[in-house]
Write a sequence for this structure.
């Protein structure tokens, strides 16, 4: 019997690839993307991913609002963003094609599930003619694949219900892509076993679909080339792919462990912060208590009450929630108790676009309370950095007895990247000293007598005999903490509250300017680190010198910042808002910092920034 | 309530007086309540340092300053929320909330009903003077309909809450009412509240002699009191009147209660009946007019407290502890799909 | 409710469909409710422009977008407050609030109970799916104790509200319950609510087929429904069961209700009894388990609405109008001790 | 029969006097001060007053926290402040003396009620020896008067209860002071008739006490001199003495009348804003509805709901309340509906010092919401100016369909001054046009199609047939207002919301520099106008040139501000905060504005500013 002879396929080397999986909310694109990402991670590429959910829970099938996508960027060098434009689009239906086509560069590969290109589905998204049949896709390399029917076919003799068979089509697609990019797929097969442990027939079905996709790539003509992307040169160590929200939650767990304080999370669900609550609620064995409060005010109130009792009090939310917590945060400032407030920013104002990203809560974090109510503000720069930012927020809160606002955003929260796992022993020791003894003469306890070092007041928790005392939101006399209406005391306390935050030592800001010949500095904060970094690299590669500085600490600002900024002809501040950091920089250092703003709900692309900066570098 | 960590030397009322000068208007009912609470505290047999008073904002909410325990004078309406975080994480403490009719029922209404629903282990003392005292005399959610105040010169347009009905509608497990001027009764109610596991909601009628003087005169004045005040005693027939000649009865087929002359078929009070319908019916006996006003413990039933369930979940979870915290953390960080680069 | 300014040409359900594409998950109970409401609206005989739907945030709160009336999709929990301002200043409008179990009972609890206490002229439709839908499946204040959700992997630690008990405890004058899938019943309840002067609180059991599918199956499934669903009809004995063989009775001396076999001494339903104790007892018949779940109008009594009293105060005050607004303003500015410099 | 011969008294002319009435909360000092102020007003002096309440409702009698005082400054020229230091202190008890002594300049007159200087009362405030008996008051002119006993004596044959007789002692004091400063007292006698209409015996008693005080001055030796302060040269017209809160309330009534819109006030009581609610609730006949809401969030929500229905929606509160309203204000910004938010600022953070003044809510007003949430912000500069500021806030809100925050503070709110009553006909016409017709093609209504002039969207109120539409907090598509997640649209809308506020035309800022030779400009906002103005005058009188500019509009800022500031060598910004306006000025104009801050809960004294500015003028 003659064997089917498989045409040998050409293998091409690539340094980087951007793939976007797009389909209906029901098509499991997030899972498909996750799996492809894991396989890719196993292989040692550097990775950056970006999911894109529809705002609705589940918009009507096949409609544009219902499209869900997942983009993964992987390379044989270290990368900073999920990529501007996909080289490959997997479109599970017409809606997915229409919604994503505009983002593709000419010549990109498009893999479409032809089974879904029915009259009805085409009509749903307003395609008069089938784009696979007219010339509208001429600029691209289209690979028509009957994903659904082939999947069903492949599972024919497994007699799984048709519905389940059809559902497995995303695994067929994954198998095909895994073949195209030579991904190791063992972990995926194992994953399917775990996922469907309770329903063996589905394990079989999905694994079969995956294999079918793989061998379809291997056997059919449609795909003449197979690609390889070699592992990236990354620091040795153990890695894990992680999203910002997951990293942030783990950072809080670490803060609890390293401070030896029980973590109490008071939270009210809100997109895109809810996952932190979900994650932390799984780790009760660390002594963590999570409370889903009746609203954001109760959530921060409960966290403050727990902090008063000696716990690491945390509340997680997004912009609208922070707006509600302002009055209670102001109380925490008056009480001078540790408190971590996490704001996973989303597009505003008001309800805005809950699933889109933005950096427009900086003003609120810095200035959004009545009276002079200063606190510390920090921001993570990437998904894995959320872990360290959370630790840092807890460190400041505990050491300096102050609320700290941690400004994450939807981009880092839901994006993912490989995370070089830290050695626990090397994490900072956050242990604190509760007050145990009276600190005043004749055995009196002075709750507002400060540590000359940190300017922090003693943390005397209920249960400590001899230190019974009362605190509250009314102005307090220096040292004694008694209610005081003395004008001089109020003036003193207002300035002291400002000074003690201003005096928190934070690391100097570092400048990245490899050739040390840049005259222009790009200053960023938070999640724009990736795109800014990528743009700067590209410019440097093209011989255009540019310096990059990125702020983790937004209040207080690094001591050397003024000096650093003064060293450049021009300072450009790209922000996903209308110039909130730029405003602070201008006020503080009186330099003519230039804002570059995009407030579209989407992260900057490296290209956008590269063009803008090129113009600045060339035309000053 | 949370049992003491150590049994202290017997304390006296004096031990619970703080060094702060008390600053209520002369004649304010709050003084009497403060004295009654300070007088009762030693009974708890809990060391001072394990007792915490948390209040919101209002004249009543100045209370914690005057107690030589731990205390927080927080912000308007939020005391139950703050106390929930404290009580949940510190089951060893005895946590008391002091609040006013505006603090608890106006701005703080949501936190109050949720604390009661959860049955958080808090003793909530609501000083009800049916007015906003600290802000100088606006009507409150317990003021009579048509009340003329600074903010309602033409009379208020909204009927008041019945705080006990509201608490019962919010699944409260312990509901009681008492009066500032009746120290003995007030302390008896505090005693019952302290013994209750979970949220204990105590409404205390309190006279604001500046902005709502005499609001409760009908049930305080020696001349009228006996005809309008109904003292509930567990297991006793509910009778009142100078010669206990009146009684509360449960008319056949009715869901509500009635007050009649003659104590023949007086209803026997039982605060422990599980169905809140009984306590609810009792709560409807008195409205704004105070005409027939029961005081005492309306309802006192068992339901696991929020704190208890949360603690149990923690204990169960900790059974899975498999190393030092650092080791467990390392394990957690290294979970999921990891890969190693050499 | 506010009577129409003009009587319009007869409208149809179609007239109440907006041009916005409906975006709930396929199979969501919200679709059925939307259809029922759109189908009922023409009955109101109120011109579309005089009808306003105000919602908070949640899947349910998307509702106003789909109604071709005036509408506001406001912020989480605040719809009753916003609607109060509108209703009070615009008595000519028919104002409806659409909310969810989280929107109304969690973050919005305070506004809800105050709207009910005031008896603001609002028709409040609470879509109760016992879950947070829009945020993808956390438990809500109506979820069963021990509910396992994304935010409570070890089970929720807090017992739920009974929305009807809470409303009754908050002095609600109209309280009803119905089900998304029973269009006829739903519309009959809307009818009663619309006719009620003041706040009408309607709990609608709604299936979230994504995050809490089948929550109400027991009282929806043709096989089980009859044994668990109790239909309240004004003036009718409360019986149920396939052959109406079960009845709700009021045991002698008890304050609560009981379900028994045999319809002999079935209680006759009367939603108009003034004492809320009856409706409260009814509300206790069903808890999380739905075992014996009454639907229909529990309570429907008269009490002047907040709007009405506010309007009356305005009318009385306007009787004192003594000139053009400008003249009155001049008079007001010149009142008090004035002096003139020439 | 020989007549008692009254020694003729010398009459001295003064140009200005500052008197402070101080006593126990129960002594009726506020009323006494009010009456003296009215009498003084009648006489045509210019006036400025400042009450000072204790924080407690009624602290224990005779204690320092229980002291209540009222200061009145009157002169024969126009004055700007209640005066730095009293020339005369009326001290009704030892506490009043002790609490106020420090504010007196050497040589000041002190009138003390000797009857109250008992051992017990002295002890209460920690006087070991009676200050009237040692030399501690040597530097002052002390007039010991047995106020209580003389009052009781004077009423002996009126047989009023002793308690009531004693109560009348404040009228005795008022009579005495009225004599000393030759005040016309008819209005006071009439006032007493009105006040005690129901109790004639009290009318008699208080009038008798007043007369007794008057003739005591006339007859006794203790007072050898009598003073006169001639009327001030003031613009002709009808005047009335008014507090800021009262003027603000009247301004809102006027806004309702002039816009022909019913006023709806949603408010939750809070010091020091409650009086606005109290005042407005009296004016229902203007069609005004006031609602005491369950909390601040409901208050602003109800106001927004009323605005949606076509009313002039207003909410009044103080800092902690604004902190709670942020999320709803953000919704109002998204809905683009008119809304006036009044913040009567008090000392913060948290509960702070509720009865003390501060300007520290500017940051919150400008920046205190999530997302890019711009709105208009204005501030009144004096008590009577609150009337005009309220009208201006309503004008901007109604014309530009935006929330406006009006930043008053405790100093202007409770202070008073003569107010030249405006002619109603000359007040601005604020009438608005509701949308009546569809504005899109084929009869479609586009709720976000803007007026090219004002960039405001149509205000289509429920009840308007054919304009049925839905609005909400999710991002809206330009023109149609439909929900939109389109990135370009969001970016456009964010910028449009910013631009439309920035584009609101506001009057140019004016500079006061009589000799036009100043090199230094003092820039202020809100209630600091008086003290800054007084300090500038004093400097000019001393030949030191200085320019003053004062901002009513804080957002948007006047178009000419940058240019104005650039015209001076130095810009000094005194604020009762830590430099919030200065921060904005620096960021915006990159000029090195110098902050001068006092955050003591008290207004600046003219002297404080004069010293500071003198130093700047002299030493640059
Ligand atoms: C957020 C906030 N809103 C309003 C206030 C002003 N305020 C303080 S106490 C109070 C109400 C007091 O009434 P109640 O709670 O009955 O206490 P009482 O003074 O009568 O004891 C109000 C409105 C505040 N301090 N904070
Ligand atoms: C201030 C604020 N907090 C939280 C959220 C997030 N959020 C939106 S809807 C919702 C709850 C939805 O549950 P429910 O009210 O029951 O409505 P459903 O989706 O179930 O119909 C939450 C927590 C928000 N939008 N705003
Ligand atoms: S105002 Fe009323 S409640 Fe407040 S302290 Fe005075 S008397 Fe007591
Ligand atoms: S999540 Fe649930 S409630 Fe929301 S639309 Fe989907 S099915 Fe309906
Ligand atoms: Mg009160
Ligand atoms: Mg729900």
């Amino acid at each position: 019997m003659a064997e089917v002879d498989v045409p040998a396929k050409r293998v091409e080397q690539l340094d980087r690839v951007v793939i976007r999986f797009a389909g209906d909310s029901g098509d499991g694109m997030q899972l498909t993307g996750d799996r492809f990402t894991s396989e890719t991670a196993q292989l040692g590429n550097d990775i950056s991913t970006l999911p894109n959910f529809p705002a609705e829970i589940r918009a009507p099938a096949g409609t544009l609002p219902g499209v869900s996508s997942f983009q993964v960027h992987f390379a044989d060098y270290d990368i900073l963003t999920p990529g501007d434009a996909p080289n490959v689009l997997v479109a599970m239906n017409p809606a997915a094609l229409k919604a994503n086509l505009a983002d593709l560069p000419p010549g990109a590969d498009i893999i479409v599930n032809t089974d879904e290109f029915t009259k009805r589905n085409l009509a749903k998204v307003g395609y008069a003619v089938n784009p696979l049949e007219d010339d509208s896709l001429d600029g691209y390399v289209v690979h028509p694949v009957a994903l659904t029917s082939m999947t069903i076919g492949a599972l024919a003799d497994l007699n799984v219900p048709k519905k389940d068979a059809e559902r497995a089509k995303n695994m067929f697609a994954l198998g095909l892509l895994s073949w195209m990019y030579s991904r190791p797929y063992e972990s995926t097969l194992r994953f399917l076993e775990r996922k469907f442990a309770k329903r063996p027939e589905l394990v079989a079905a999905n694994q079969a679909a995956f294999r079918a996709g793989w061998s379809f790539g291997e056997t059919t003509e449609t795909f003449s080339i197979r690609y390889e992307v070699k592992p990236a040169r990354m620091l040795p160590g153990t890695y894990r792919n992680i999203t910002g929200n997951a990293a942030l939650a783990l950072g809080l767990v670490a803060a609890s462990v390293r401070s030896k304080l029980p973590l109490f999370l008071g939270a009210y669900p809100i997109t895109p912060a809810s996952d932190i609550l979900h994650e932390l609620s799984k780790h009760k064995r660390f002594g963590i208590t999570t409370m889903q409060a009746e609203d954001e005010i109760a959530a921060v109130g409960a966290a403050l009450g727990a902090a008063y009792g000696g716990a690491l009090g945390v509340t997680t939310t997004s912009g609208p929630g922070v707006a509600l917590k302002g009055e209670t945060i102001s109380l925490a400032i008056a009480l001078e108790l540790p408190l971590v407030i996490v704001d996973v920013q989303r597009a505003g104002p008001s309800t805005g676009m809950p699933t889109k990203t933005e950096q427009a809560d900086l003003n609120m974090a810095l200035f959004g309370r009545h009276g002079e109510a200063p606190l510390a503000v920090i921001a993570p720069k990437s998904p894995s950095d959320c872990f360290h930012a959370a630790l840092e927020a807890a460190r400041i809160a505990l050491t300096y007895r102050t609320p700290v606002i941690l400004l994450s955003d939807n981009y880092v929260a839901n994006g993912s990247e490989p995370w070089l796992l830290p050695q626990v022993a090397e994490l900072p020791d956050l242990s604190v000293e509760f007050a145990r003894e009276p600190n005043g003469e004749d055995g009196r306890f002075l709750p507002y007598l400060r540590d000359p070092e940190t300017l922090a007041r003693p943390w005397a928790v209920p249960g400590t005999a001899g230190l019974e005392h009362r605190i509250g939101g009314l102005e307090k006399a220096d040292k004694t903490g008694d209610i005081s209406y003395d004008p001089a005391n109020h003036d003193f306390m207002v300035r002291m509250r400002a000074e003690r935050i201003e005096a928190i030592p934070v690391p100097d800001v570092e400048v990245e300017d490899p050739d040390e010949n840049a005259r222009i500095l790009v200053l960023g904060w938070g999640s724009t680190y990736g795109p800014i970094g990528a743009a700067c690299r590209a410019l440097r590669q093209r011989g255009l010198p540019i310096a990059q500085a990125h702020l983790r600490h937004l209040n207080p600002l690094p001591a050397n910042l003024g000096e650093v900024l003064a060293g450049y002809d021009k300072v450009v501040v790209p922000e996903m808002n209308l110039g909130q950091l730029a405003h602070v920089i201008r006020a503080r250092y009186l330099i003519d910092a230039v804002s570059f703003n995009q407030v579209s709900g989407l992260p900057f692309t490296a290209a956008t920034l590269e063009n803008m900066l090129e113009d600045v570098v060339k035309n000053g | 309530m949370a049992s003491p960590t150590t049994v202290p030397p017997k304390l006296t009322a004096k031990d619970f007086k703080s060094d702060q000068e008390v600053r209520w208007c002369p004649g304010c009912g709050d003084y009497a309540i403060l004295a009654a609470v300070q007088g009762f505290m030693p009974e708890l047999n809990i060391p001072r340092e394990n007792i915490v008073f948390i209040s919101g904002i209002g004249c009543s909410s100045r209370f914690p300053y005057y107690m030589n325990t731990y205390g927080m004078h927080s912000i308007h309406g939020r005391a139950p929320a703050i106390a929930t975080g404290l009580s949940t994480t510190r089951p060893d403490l005895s946590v008391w909330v002091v609040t006013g009719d505006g603090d608890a029922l106006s701005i703080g209404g949501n936190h109050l009903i949720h604390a009661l629903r959860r049955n958080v282990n808090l003793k909530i003392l609501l000083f009800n003077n049916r007015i906003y005292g600290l802000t100088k005399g606006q009507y409150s959610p317990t003021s009579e309909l048509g009340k003329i105040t600074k903010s309602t010169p033409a009379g208020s347009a909204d009927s008041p809450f019945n705080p006990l009905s509201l608490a019962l509608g919010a699944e409260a497990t312990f509901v009681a009412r008492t009066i500032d001027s009746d120290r003995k009764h007030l302390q008896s109610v505090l005693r019952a509240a302290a013994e209750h596991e979970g949220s204990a909601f105590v409404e205390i009628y309190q006279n604001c002699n500046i902005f709502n003087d005499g609001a409760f005169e009908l049930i305080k004045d020696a001349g009228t009191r006996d005809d309008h005040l109904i003292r509930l005693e567990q297991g006793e027939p509910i009778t009142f009147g100078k010669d206990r000649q009146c009684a509360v009865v449960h008319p056949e087929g009715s869901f509500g209660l009635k007050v009649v002359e003659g104590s023949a078929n007086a209803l026997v009070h039982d605060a422990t009946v599980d169905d809140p319908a009984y306590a609810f019916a009792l709560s409807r006996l008195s409205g704004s007019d105070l005409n027939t006003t029961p005081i005492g413990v309306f309802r006192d039933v068992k339901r696991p407290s929020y704190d208890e369930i949360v603690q149990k979940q923690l204990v169960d979870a900790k059974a899975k502890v498999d190393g030092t915290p650092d080791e467990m953390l390392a394990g957690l960080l290294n979970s999921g799909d990891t890969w190693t680069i050499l």
About this structure: The first helix of chain D runs from residue 29 to 43. Chain D touches chain B through 27 residues (CB under 8 Å). The radius of gyration of chain D is 27 Å.
